[in-house]
Amino acid sequence: MRKLILLSVFLCLSLKMSAQLVPVFYGDAVSLGDDCYRVTDAVTAQSGSVWYDNPIDLNADFKIIFDANFGDNDADGADGMAFVMKTTSTPEIGNSGGGLGYEGITQSLAVEFDTWTNGNRADPPGGIDHMSLMRGGNAHHSSIDNLVGPVDISATSINVEDGLYHEVKIEWVAATQTFTVFFDCSERIVYSGDIINTVFGGASEVFFGFAGSTGGYYNLQQICFKYVSFANTLALADQEICIGESIETVDATYENGIGYEWQPSTGVSDISIPNPVFTPTENTTYLVTVLDNCGVVVFTDSFDAVVNPLPTITGEDVEFNCMTNSAEISVDVEAGVQVNWYDAPTGGALLLSDSAVFEVSSPGTYYAEAISDAGCVSEVRAEVVVSVSLPDAPLSDGDVDFSCTNNNAILSVSVSEGLEVNWYDAEVGGDLLLESSTTYEATEEGTYYAETIDPITGCVSETRTAVSTSIIYPEMPINNGEDTACGGNVTLSVSVPEGVIVNWYSADTDELLLANSTTYQVSGIGTYYAEAEIEATGCKSENNVYIELVNCEIPQGISPNGDGLNDYFELSNFQVHKIEIYNRYGTLVYSKNNYTNDWYGQTNDGEDLPVGTYFYTMEYGEGETHCGWVYINK
Q1: pLDDT value for 2
Q2: Domains parsed from the chain with CATH numbers
Q3: Which residues have CB under 8 Å from 338's CB, separation 6+?
């Protein structure tokens, strides 16, 4: 079953037909939600009806649009449904089976949708799904109560039991007393006559509902309302805006609507859509005409857009009293207008609400916003400046290098005689670090801010002066040799600028080996690094130069006995890409790609080789090769 949202007009929230019509169910009929109802289930011997206590005035036009689903059982599907109008609102059910649940309801007018051929009621032969306009609860087509029909329900098919929803539109035009039924946009039944007197016994107020049934054969039969002219609330709510604003919540969407036209077009973003944006500049009544999927006007509706003017607001600047630390500011507005104060021309923080007068405790610029009774806000906020004679900001004596030795820096500024200085950790706000001093000892690198204060008036400089101290790190030393060299009795040497000294360390232990020297004499292998230090501040380089002294000789023997000495054939300094080791008979006993120190005298299968001399070839470095021998001694 599909869900059908009923009602052609929305305004923020959908206006549902069910809010106007309250259904009462009889027999097997049940609600499916969203103004959809199951009249019969797909089982035998079902009969159900849905009735409403809302009267229809036949002296006025009405229009009812709904979707009907007759199930998907064609050959054995039965029996059909009927739209029924009668003189009472009492829920009831007529004869089931071929009676479609309306047969026997007197003083009624029924549009029957019959999906089964009953020969005893003069139904058309051939299994054609047919419809008729019947009165008096008589379901026999050869009687005088058969006002129109039977005709094919669909203009395009003899079968409507296709499991699909089909739109049905029923219209009554009181002036011409014309009753018309459309099925899928095709006109199927037209009847003109005095139904008030000939059908309803002079009653001009009638009630309506649906009935349906199954017999020995069956179908799932359902109804979903789309539009009921006398029950739907079609009035779009009037809108009230301030000039310059737009209306974006009006939505005249009608399900299956194919055309919309708004008038007037002035201030409408798109007159051909159901939910345009409206930007009126004066009070305007907007009218919408809606075409349904059949290309017919289904309804028209309108709403009034009331456009309210914006309030005006003015104010004057004042002087700040630094002795009392206050100033009273005010603005002029019309009577009944609310005033709110902010710290910014737009957005910002609300400082005071609903007052035209504001006592402030600091100089600066304040912004007053006017709000009218209609909720309209002044186009711009009135700017009120509270000014004061402020002392000049301090003059910086210059930024200072931070001392890594003393872990401090002495900052200083200059001010005119009689003025004092306070130090802060931020350009505005922040924490007060020191009062009444032109100097400040900083224990961390960073930027500090000095503010001038007049001790007599308490007024402070408009801005603070930034004084910075930072750690200046020397560049790392420049290596005068190679980063990697063969070990032995070697003198390591680096270069640094004037005023920078060099300290030497062991990379393995970080132990200081030699201080304040650009050279260092070493006699063994290992990794060493040189650190630069600014002599004046004690600040050291963040990066150091590392020099690795390595063993550059290929071992001629190994003793794999587990004592940790010469247990492996050590070639890690040669970037060996491939090695192959042969015994004295030329037999390959071991090979390895990307070799470092993996061979301890074993074969490729992991078996220990006997004591003796073995021969190897290796590819290393940048395509170099080397052949040699190595002796295994256990």
Answers
A1: 27
A2: 10-228 (2.60.120.200), 239-308 (2.60.40.10), 314-387 (2.60.40.10), 395-470 (2.60.40), 478-550 (2.60.40.10), 557-632 (2.60.40)
A3: 353, 354, 370, 371, 372
